[in-house]
């Protein structure tokens, strides 16, 4: 996997190349022998030329500059962008002929304000120019990723994980990215689409023309030859860059540079810049900014950024973009966010291209991680793993269900003992009703939840090897997908099924029959003798049974005892412990019957439970994956 990061800027452009798994920083691909080139395009003898070659001095025709800033407003700008991209791609392939075949992804930057639809159009445009598999990423996000991964910056990852503000000032726009918790999902993009360093280029050139004794002749040349005007704007840009690279050097005397304009006559244009001129320019009202000054618009943009981040002010502020070297810009940013650590990119002309390459790798890894997790969590592999292990669940599940039935039966006996339930026959009826209610309600869910959680924890640990191998491939720390000790949302609530729903009506009725037969026999079996097994009650009940047996026969005796309203005094001797002992004697047989009912394929419980648990565990896996994604995004 080789990824190209293409920073197509309004003033300069740069290209970086990253080997997908390499730990080395993205390599800048030289354009005209430099890490970056002027964003200029023209033609010479019908051949497209870009950068320095696209100048009036080189004989180029139809020279165009600052075309990206017009992309949203000028219908002709799209064809210019495409022509420039074609020229850049041709230069790259000329230098590295195998590049086109090796590159798996191209990532191109865009201003923060561009919406998804515009990004898709831009990607298609760049692909038509020759770049393979193009995706478009906001430039502030690229700057954030560069700050995170670049070894030269060494920004503390904990600061980036808390809250960070990227301020990217280029030739045509000033963009902000406010990132909270290091998550791409929490990325807020905003800025000023009209505020860029290119405005200063125009002002420097205008100042020089206004001071020139050949002002009228120069303006006539610019009116008739846009190529020469573009050439002079680029000369003004170079003056600006030299000045802001070392402002202290020009504190005592202005920076001056001369440019020769050869049109119908030879004209000399002198460009100059000093501290006073800069202060005057950034305070002057500009038509392009609606009559506001450069500095006031910058202050407004920073104020808006401060308002957007007021709940969690940024702890780190990353300044990037070619114009970020300007001292007044750095000062304004520090004044707006005095408590944030200000980080300056050492090579702002390269940082966005490198960040775009990092973004490509991040997005590739993120897509692969999500794809693999979805395949495992929602595919046949998890279902097969659940199905292979579900047999081990039936015995502990039967044990939990019998516990529910036992507690419900004891509650019925307690009410009979207190006189709330008059006869043994009504205990059976009441107990049957209450057990059915308990097994289909919250009580069963609560009792079953830890059983399912323990079983699911074992299942997930069995899947950890596969998941951790995926983590290594996608750049996620393996512990992020370790299930040991994970709180799995299991239980019948977690699988979004009640027991009757999971079993189906017929299977649930059959299971209820099994449970009630055992519980009924334990509580009320032998015509109530289970309740009268010891002590005085046993003697009285035994004597009564003997008399009834002699007078009415066995069936008559059972009917009589089941309908008898025994005195409360006698009922009190039927203790919970005696009834529990009767139930416990039936437990093994009862649980085996319940387990067989659960496993019976004709009831459909196994299939429904496997599907439900597969969905639940898959959702759990995806939740953990979403938390783990931060490691990729950072």
Major beta-sheet overview: 6 strands, mixed
Report how far apart the termini are: 20 Å
Cα-based radius of gyration, to the nearest Å:
40 Å
| Low-pLDDT runs | 485-497, 524-558
Count of extended strands: 16
The SS-based structural class is: alpha/beta
Approximate helicity band:
55-70%
Mean pLDDT: 79
Global geometry = elongated
SS strand fraction: 5-15%
The number of distinct helices, counting runs of at least 4 residues, comes to: 23
What would your notes on this structure say?
The protein has 634 residues and is α/β, with parallel strands linked by helices. Among the domains are: 1-136, ATPase, nucleotide binding domain (Nucleotidyltransferase, domain 5), CATH 3.30.420; 199-289; 379-528 and 574-633, no CATH class. Helix content is 57%, strand content 15%. The protein has helices at 77-95, 99-102, 116-128, 139-149, 157-162, 198-211, 215-224, 226-245, 275-283, 294-308, 327-336, 348-378, 380-389, 391-418, 424-439, 442-474, 491-494, 499-503, 505-524, 535-563, 568-571, 576-599, 605-633, and strands at 2-8, 12-19, 27-28, 36-38, 40-44, 47-50, 61-65, 103-110, 134-138, 163-169, 174-180, 187-192, 255-262, 266-273, 316-320, 341-344. Strand 10 and strand 11 (174-180) form a beta hairpin. Helix 10 (294-308) packs parallel to helix 11, helix 12 (348-378) runs antiparallel to helix 23 and helix 19 (505-524) runs antiparallel to helix 22. The longest helix has 33 residues, at 442-474.
């Amino acid at each position: 996997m080789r990824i190209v990061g293409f920073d197509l800027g309004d003033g300069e452009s740069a290209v970086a190349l990253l080997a997908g798994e390499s730990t080395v920083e993205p390599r800048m691909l030289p354009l005209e022998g430099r890490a970056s080139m002027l964003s200029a395009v023209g033609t010479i003898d019908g051949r497209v030329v870009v950068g320095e070659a696209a100048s009036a001095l080189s004989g180029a025709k139809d020279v165009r500059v600052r075309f990206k800033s017009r992309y949203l407003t000028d219908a002709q700008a799209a064809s210019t962008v495409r022509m420039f991209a074609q020229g850049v791609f041709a230069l790259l392939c000329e230098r590295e002929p195998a590049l086109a075949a090796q590159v798996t992804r191209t990532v191109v930057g865009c201003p923060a304000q561009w919406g998804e639809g515009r990004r898709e159009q831009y990607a298609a445009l760049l692909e038509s120019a020759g770049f393979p598999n193009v995706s478009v990423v906001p430039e502030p996000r690229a700057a954030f990723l560069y700050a995170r991964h670049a070894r030269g910056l060494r920004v503390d990852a904990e600061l980036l994980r808390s809250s960070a503000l990227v301020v990217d000032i280029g030739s045509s726009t000033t963009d902000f990215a406010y990132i909270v918790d290091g998550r791409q999902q929490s990325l807020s993009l905003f800025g000023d689409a009209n505020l860029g360093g290119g405005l200063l280029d125009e002002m420097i050139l205008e100042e020089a023309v206004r001071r020139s004794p050949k002002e009228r002749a120069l303006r006539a040349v610019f009116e008739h030859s846009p190529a020469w005007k573009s050439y002079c704007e680029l000369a003004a840009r170079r003056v600006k860059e030299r000045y802001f690279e070392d402002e202290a050097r020009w504190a005592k005397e202005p920076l001056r540079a001369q440019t020769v304009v050869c049109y119908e006559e030879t004209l000399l244009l002198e460009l100059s810049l000093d501290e006073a001129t800069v202060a005057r320019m950034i305070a002057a009202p500009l038509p392009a900014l609606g009559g506001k000054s450069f500095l006031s618009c910058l202050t407004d943009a920073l104020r808006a950024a401060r308002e957007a981040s007021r709940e969690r002010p940024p702890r780190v502020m990353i300044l990037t973009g070619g114009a970020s070297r300007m001292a007044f810009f750095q000062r304004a940013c520090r004044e707006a966010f005095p408590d944030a650590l200000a980080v300056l990119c050492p090579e702002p002309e390269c940082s966005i291209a490198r960040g775009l390459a990092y973004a490509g790798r991040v997005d590739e890894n993120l897509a692969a991680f999500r794809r693999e997790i979805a395949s495992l969590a929602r595919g046949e592999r998890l279902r097969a793993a659940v199905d292979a292990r579900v047999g081990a669940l039936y015995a502990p599940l039967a044990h939990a269900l019998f516990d529910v039935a036992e507690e419900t039966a004891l509650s019925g006996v307690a009410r009979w003992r207190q006189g709330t339930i008059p006869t043994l026959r009504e205990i059976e009826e009441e107990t049957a009703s209450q057990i059915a209610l308990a097994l289909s309600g919250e009580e069963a869910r609560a009792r079953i939840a830890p059983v399912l959680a323990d079983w699911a924890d074992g299942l997930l640990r069995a899947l950890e090897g596969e998941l951790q191998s995926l983590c290594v491939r996608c750049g996620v720390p393996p512990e992020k997908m370790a299930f040991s000790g994970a709180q799995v949302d299991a239980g019948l609530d977690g699988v979004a099924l009640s027991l009757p729903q999971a079993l189906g009506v017929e299977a649930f009725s059959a299971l209820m029959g099994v449970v009630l037969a055992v519980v009924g026999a334990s509580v009320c079996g032998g015509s109530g003798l289970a309740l009268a097994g010891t002590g005085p009650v046993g003697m009285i009940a035994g004597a009564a049974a003997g008399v009834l047996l002699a007078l009415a026969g066995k069936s008559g005796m059972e009917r009589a005892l089941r309908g008898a309203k025994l005195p409360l005094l006698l009922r009190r001797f039927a203790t919970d412990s005696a009834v529990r002992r009767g139930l416990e004697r039936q437990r093994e047989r009862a649980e085996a019957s319940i387990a067989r009912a659960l496993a019976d394929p004709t009831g459909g419980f196994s299939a429904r439970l496997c599907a439900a648990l597969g969905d639940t565990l898959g959702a759990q896996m995806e939740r953990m994956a979403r938390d783990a994604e931060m490691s990729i995004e950072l």
